[in-house]
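Hi support team,

I submitted a single chain yesterday and got back a structure, but I'm not sure I'm reading the token output correctly. Could someone confirm the output below corresponds to the sequence I sent? I've pasted both exactly as they appear in my results page.

Thanks,
R.
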Amino acid sequence: MTNSTKAPVVAKTTKIQTAAKIAESDTKQKEFIIGVHKVTASTKLKYKPNPKRKNSKAWLRYESYSKAKNFAQYQKLNQDKQSIPDLKYDLSKSFVEIS
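Hi R., thanks for writing in. Yes, this is the structure output for that exact sequence:
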């Protein structure tokens, strides 16, 4: 009985250690190249008022992701396949600034 009790504890410890390693790797800054800009999760974004045609798909996406204060929040708010092209376009037109 003692051996069967220890086995699950060892397995739990391994799972906890694995989760800790995953959490640690998530905190490392990944860099992305958006157009000519290098951004990380903590890169701050500043938006101009929504310049898109009202009620278009692009306008609705901009309304959603323009609430993000940094690139990590942007990615969470804009999980559409258009997220990177949107940001690249908005940066090229100065609708969004990196600060």
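A quick pointer for reading it: Strands lie at 32-34, 37-39, 45-47, 96-98. Let us know if anything else looks off.

Best,
Support desk
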